[in-house]
């Protein structure tokens, strides 16, 4: 793939990941095993409230093809085929879920040095079409995406954004919800080794005149331990500790507090991922 501006979904992704990734409120346990044939088998159990769910996932890679299969506790089977370079500089993703025969989806991504394009089509009797495009360079990119319902002949969504990336920082502005919201974010690494970072994000909803401002940070205590925290103007405080117990096996402890309502029970999450 070429080193171009990236997909539209990459705009603002660094800030989003720093503020949301690995923050959980459930108890999750997963174990991955690897076979000699290249199959990765992952078993996951999740406890949310008083309910317990789980799934078994298998992943197999052969040359330029990646196959993912997941079976959950309700006997739903989700399958995804990802094939790169069928045509130069492209990636094709086909997915479907059984027994929901109308869940099929086909996506094609095209990468160029100065632009990327994606097209996703739902494989059913009333297909929807999602389109996105970006132009620019790895340093600055302009992009837009839209979703079109072929049955009603109307656009379900349209979004535009701009992203700027430097070695030690990343910034983005995204106009979404059909122009009803705007989100601006900025991430800055505080040292050359990127052991620490600070992030700020502000979102405004025009229809409700509601503003949400969130600040957060990340600090790598050592090469095995990372701590993260975030706080928004509504008083929601989140904290996270992630530690590598043994190589590739991660323990994550997460919590969320409402600082404006200390009588409310805090939310805690625990995740353990074992990869021998």
From TrEMBL:
Listed GO MF terms: porin activity; voltage-gated monoatomic anion channel activity
Annotated localization: Membrane
Pfam families hit by this protein: Porin_3 (PF01459)
Record GO cellular component, one term: pore complex
InterPro entries noted in UniProt: Porin_dom_sf, Porin_Euk, Porin_Euk/Tom40
Predominant place of localization: membrane
Coiled coil: none
Superkingdom classification of source: Eukaryota
Alphabetically ordered keywords of this record: Ion transport, Membrane, Porin, Transmembrane, Transmembrane beta strand, Transport
Functional summary from the UniProt entry: Forms a channel through the cell membrane that allows diffusion of small hydrophilic molecules. The channel adopts an open conformation at low or zero membrane potential and a closed conformation at potentials above 30-40 mV. The open state has a weak anion selectivity whereas the closed state is cation-selective.
Record-stated family: Belongs to the eukaryotic mitochondrial porin (TC 1.B.8.1) family.
Official protein name in the record: Voltage-dependent anion-selective channel protein
């Amino acid at each position: 793939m070429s080193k171009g501006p990236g997909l539209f979904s990459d705009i603002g992704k660094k800030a989003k990941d720093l503020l949301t990734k690995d923050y959980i409120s459930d108890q999750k346990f997963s174990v991955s095993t690897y076979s000699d044939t290249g199959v990765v088998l992952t078993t996951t159990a999740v406890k949310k409230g008083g309910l317990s769910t789980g799934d078994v996932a298998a992943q197999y890679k052969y040359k330029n093809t990646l196959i993912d299969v997941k079976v959950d506790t309700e006997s739903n089977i989700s399958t995804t085929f990802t094939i790169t370079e069928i045509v130069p500089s492209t990636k094709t993703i086909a997915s479907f879920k059984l027994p929901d025969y109308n869940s099929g989806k086909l996506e094609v991504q095209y990468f160029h040095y100065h632009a990327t394009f994606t097209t996703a089509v739902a494989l059913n009797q009333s297909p929807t079409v999602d389109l996105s495009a970006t132009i620019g360079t790895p340093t600055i990119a302009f992009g837009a995406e839209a979703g079109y319902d072929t049955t009603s002949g109307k656009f379900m969504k349209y979004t535009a954004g701009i992203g700027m990336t430097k070695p030690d920082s990343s910034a983005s502005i995204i106009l979404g919800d059909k122009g009803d919201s705007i989100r601006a974010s900025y991430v800055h690494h505080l040292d050359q080794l990127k052991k620490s970072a600070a992030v700020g994000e502000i979102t405004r909803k025009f229809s409700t005149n509601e503003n949400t401002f969130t600040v957060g940070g990340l600090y790598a205590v050592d090469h095995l331990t990372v701590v993260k925290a975030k706080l928004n103007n509504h008083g929601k405080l989140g904290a996270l500790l992630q530690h590598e117990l043994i190589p590739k096996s991660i323990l994550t402890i997460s919590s969320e507090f409402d600082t404006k309502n200390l009588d409310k029970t805090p939310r805690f999450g625990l995740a353990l991922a074992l990869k021998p």
